[in-house]
Design the sequence.
């Protein structure tokens, strides 16, 4: 087409003018129209030349009229390109070339349609299906050698990566980087050998990332310079060589096709980056979690040791103070020893609370279940607090129990819960009343409530009342209710609290299953 434009365009224009006057039948022209010659094609169309596009041009150029033919044939002789010119008015030759032309014309694409596709980026003529594995491998290498800016590669399997490594594909990539400054990015499934060599590839400036199993495909893809792509189907991944493992391949320089592969690559690249970040985060989290567990273990061991060590001096203080209280007759001395005894009991209880919290958080709190009457336990707890209650002159304590309630539970632990709840009520009630009641509801649930007329529960504390250290008081550690909640829940029960409707005091309730 370039030759026609340069040397024959004036003659063609004259012939087309004659055809407009009915003196000539016109000119039909067949050629390959691509991005390089699309402007020339437009110029040839302008005076009225009939032009069609064909993809696979025969290895000769020829023109034929109703009288003669002229053809140029190119061939190689002893390494040199030789052109031969054939001119003939022999009817047999003319008819032969006419039939060839008509067949090609029939299968050609209208030039205007072809030009429109090229200008709109819809050129599909650059798509080829290749079956020969040797041609596929040769084309892949050619694409790498011709790349000027960037090469993107997706390997279908780790074996596909190794097969290309074996035939020298990675060496070609390295040469493209070193000699032409080409950017190379690879996405591949990983195995131990690829991970082992990843550092070496990085040093060669090959950016490699791994495709996670859910994102793997059965097609290997190479895209070069945003203008060419080659996708190769995987036929048999167990084969050692690429030639045996390859299936069909599709080459394309069609813009939409190439851009689609680029979009797929970039999507997988970002996805692999997210997977890598997630993996790194998980590793960091695992390391931090390990350190946290080690620190937690050390903390629990220290607390256990400290609590047990505290028990040792507290026991004789409690025992000897009880002995002294039984022997001292002087009220002044009695009161002094009583202060020692009460504070030793507080210290002992704190020690037990710390040990209980450690057991709860290490999930080693064990229940020693037995059958007993819960009403008797409540009565005994109230009796144990009688001396402390009597010292609060303005507080009236009432025990309301409607019958005997047989339960199967840890007697000592439920005793601890009831004691914590009553102790809590006494702590915050300076006057009024404390009512301890138990009753059965819903046939198999025993409800125990401790209602007081004390200061009530601070609204700020209420949401976290049964959490560790939830207290605004200078008395106590805020562990009692937390431990009580865990004990009740270990018995498949429930515990909760509420301020009284009359805005005086609060009520703590718990329920257990009856036998």
Sequence:
């Amino acid at each position: 087409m370039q030759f026609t434009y340069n040397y024959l365009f004036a003659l063609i224009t004259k012939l087309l003018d004659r055809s407009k006057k009915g003196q000539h039948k016109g000119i039909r022209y067949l050629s390959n129209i691509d991005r390089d010659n699309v402007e020339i094609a437009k110029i040839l169309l302008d005076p009225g030349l009939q032009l069609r596009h064909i993809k696979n041009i025969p290895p000769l150029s020829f023109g034929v009229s109703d009288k003669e033919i002229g053809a140029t044939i190119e061939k190689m002789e002893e390494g040199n390109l030789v052109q031969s010119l054939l001119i003939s008015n022999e009817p047999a030759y003319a008819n032969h070339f006419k039939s060839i032309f008509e067949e090609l014309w029939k299968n050609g694409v209208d030039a205007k349609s072809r030009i429109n596709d090229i200008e709109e980026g819809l050129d599909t003529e650059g798509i080829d299906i290749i079956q020969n594995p040797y041609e596929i491998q040769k084309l892949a290498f050619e694409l790498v050698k011709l790349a000027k800016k960037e090469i993107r590669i997706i390997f279908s399997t780790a074996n596909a990566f190794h097969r290309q490594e074996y035939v020298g594909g990675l060496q070609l990539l390295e040469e493209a980087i070193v000699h032409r400054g080409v950017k190379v990015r690879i996405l591949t499934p990983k195995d131990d050998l690829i991970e082992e060599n990843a550092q070496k590839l990085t040093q060669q400036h090959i950016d490699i990332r791994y495709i996670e199993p859910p994102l793997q495909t059965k097609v290997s893809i190479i895209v070069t310079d945003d203008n060419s792509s080659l996708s190769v189907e995987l036929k048999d991944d167990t084969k050692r060589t690429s030639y045996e493992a390859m299936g069909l391949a599709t080459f394309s320089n069609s813009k939409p096709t190439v851009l689609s592969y680029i979009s797929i690559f970039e999507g997988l690249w970002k996805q692999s980056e997210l997977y890598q970040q997630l993996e790194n985060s998980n590793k960091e989290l695992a390391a931090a979690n390990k350190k946290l567990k080690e620190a937690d273990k050390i903390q629990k061991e220290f607390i256990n040791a400290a609590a047990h060590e505290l028990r040792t001096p507290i026991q004789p203080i409690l025992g000897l103070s009880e002995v002294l209280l039984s022997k001292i007759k002087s009220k002044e001395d009695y009161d002094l020893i009583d202060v020692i005894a009460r504070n030793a009991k507080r210290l002992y209880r704190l020690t037990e609370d710390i040990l209980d919290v450690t057991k709860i958080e290490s999930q080693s709190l064990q229940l020693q279940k037995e059958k007993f009457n819960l009403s008797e336990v409540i009565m005994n707890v109230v009796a144990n607090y009688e001396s402390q209650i009597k010292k609060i002159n303005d507080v009236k304590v009432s025990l309301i129990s409607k019958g005997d309630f047989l339960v199967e539970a840890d007697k000592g632990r439920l005793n601890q819960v009831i004691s914590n709840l009553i102790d809590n009520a006494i702590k915050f009630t300076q006057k009024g009343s404390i009512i301890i009641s138990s009753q059965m509801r819903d046939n198999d649930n025993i409800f125990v409530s401790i209602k007081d007329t004390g200061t009530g529960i601070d609204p700020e504390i209420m949401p976290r009342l049964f959490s560790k250290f939830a207290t605004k008081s200078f008395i106590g550690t805020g562990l009692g209710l937390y431990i009580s909640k865990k004990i009740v829940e270990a018995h498949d029960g429930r515990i909760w609290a509420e301020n009284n409707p009359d805005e005086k005091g609060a009520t703590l309730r718990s329920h257990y299953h009856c036998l």
Notes: The chain has four domains: 2-119, 127-253, 285-360, 367-513. The mean pLDDT is 85.
